[in-house]
Design goal:
339 residues; mainly alpha; DNA polymerase, domain 1; hpI Integrase, Chain A; 2 domains; two-stranded antiparallel sheet; 5 strands; flat
Length: 339
Amino acid sequence: MKSDDFFTLVRSWLTIYLPRSRRLSPHTIRSYKTALNTLLEFLGETRSLKLEQVGFDAITYSSMSEFIAWITDARHLSAASANQRLAAIKSFLSYCAGEEPALVATWLDVKRVRPARAPERAPDALGMEAVEALIRAPGQQTAHGLRDTLLILLMFDAAARIQEVLDLTPADIVTTAGHGAVTLTGKGCKTRTVPIMDKTGRHLEQYLKMFHPAPVGPGAWLFYTVWAAERHQMSQDNVAYMLNKYATIAREQCPEVPKQVHAHQLRHARAMQMLRAGVPLPHIKEFLGHANISTTEIYASADNQMVREAIQRAAGTAPDLAPIWKGPDDLILRLAGLK
């Protein structure tokens, strides 16, 4: 098929099928765009194909297997990132096969490509002392300090993904003591309502009085920045900069705070705290918005590993065992049956 056919299907997939038929969020659609752009870069770099030359004949089992290796080796991305891009491309080809029967063979060919194997590793969770130091770091003497304290506290308390917090509106908040909750919109536009601490509710009430004093429309962002006298949704880059700025401050009081802090570490910290408090894994799964409990089980594995490492550290203070094979060489050889 021609390049025109390829890009026609790309356009209809991104602008019609995903947003209208699948009703995927703009954030998810952006990740699919990233996957296709990465594929085009790969074809240009390894096959010397210009955009006008790209067609479905360049997408084969062999080229896509090489694509996975290129992402991890040349682009130095993680196996998880490579697999996300592969899954997006498979989804695109599945759509194309439905639109054009001649592409069924291409889809089935690429469908056989195995994902990159991702090494299992424990979630990069912050310790509770580090979390508390990070929450205290902004202070509450200024309006921005109040806002940033709430943002960090809410990301931790609700164990929310960064975009879930940034997508919140005042209408998603309930601050009633004993019944406080936030309604988060997660992956695939799925919503879940999670409880929050009364302390977080009080912070929210104070924040709303200062930053949303008048009744607001249904589309107003809870957290926003002001540019050209207009309110805009706060970006993930804003939050990343803010977290690392306060991490530097928090590290002076708590050396446990790492040099680089990212929002997901707060989510991991909340999940680990719930696990150690005895909350069952299925409840944690629903709280975190995981589609599969196997994703949640990694926290239990990480907790077991931490216990094991603590036991090993404690064992380092115990005296070594007395040697069994001790004495003249001739005696040791005789006892060992060597003489």
